[in-house]
Amino acid sequence: MNQHRSDSHALTAAYALNALDSGEREPFTDHIARCEECRLEVAGFQATAARLAAAVAQPPPAAMKQRTLAAVEGVRQLPPRRSTPLSPAPLGGALRRKAGLFAVAASVAAAALFAGLAAWQNQESRHYEQQARQVEQRLDDVSTVLAAPDARTAHGRTSNGAAATVVSSAMRNKAVFTAGGLPAPVAGTTYQLWLDHDGTMSPAGFIHRDGTVLVEGDTADAGAIGLTLEPAGGSPRPTTTPLLLMDLPA
Per-domain residue ranges for the chain? Predict the structure, then answer.
């Protein structure tokens, strides 16, 4: 009795992968209707199979196809299907006959998982490399202004209480803006920087939180820098009262 119960439990993976024929699937379906442990285990295997299928949805590298095809040669194959119908076998015998099939299914699932992981890692690697290059470039640009021999600094405070500092360099034709204690913008809005060119305000980038950003645009003939709260995505012209309007240091 104990051996039969053990064999029945061991068929959960084959059942989840639809690897049982009708003569075995129907008795096992009756079994899991009475066995909560098996029902939970089948659900777990089905969820795992779904995650493996999602992993396959990632485009694999070209070399992965050749490696997978080469690996198939070492996977144990199923015996040829017999033309003579076989009498229904007890669940205990089904476990032994399905061991080879489940091994093949597991091997294919593992290959699919590794292919998906390799593609995901490749994409993630490129993504983080690009981010690292962008951050490094921004740091270089900021450092260039701060280290300029003609760098000048001005300090101010926004109307909502944040401390602001601007460092500009006429030699580099650039400026750096730093904010500290900037309140989080309400949903759907963002902080936008502006350069004042003889009364005309031109967009100069964004600062989304406390920190330091390189001011965008030409600072050569700009007299002041401004900060407003704008709709998310920014505006071509200021739409709210400036939180800050500070002269650029000469």
Answer: 2-75+89-126, 152-247
